[in-house]
Amino acid sequence: MKRGFALLETIIVITFVTVSLMLLYGTFTSLIEKKEENILYDDVSNIYQMYYLKEYLSLYGLEEVNTKKHVELTCDDFSISTCSSFMEQMSLEHLYLVSYGLKDYDGMSTSLRRYLSSLSNKEDYDYWLVGEFYIEDAYHYASIGVMHDE
Q: Where are the domains positioned within the chain?
């Protein structure tokens, strides 16, 4: 009788330890994914660059840009002669003006779609000014809210 009880007790303990390890693995996996996301998304220096870029572009008509749901901004949208060198200095590959709440669009890259889904949906602004930075062989993203005066 004692042998059967010891075997049953061992099986229960092994099952308990296995389930606990599986739960810990799931938790650590999501933490690692979040850490990788935090490295590529909303770096403080990139947010500061986006803020100053937004202020700079508002002097040259950021509010007058045609507001679709998803717009990639280029230097042709602004009358700034040093725009391309400015974007190159900032390591800025692409600049987007995206309406709040937009999570998916056919023309978006997968990494941009993933970044937009990570953003909280605040109603204080009408649009996000999203910058796609290419730093150290990886795309980094940062955004800042924009009010669009109609």
A: 1-40, 42-146
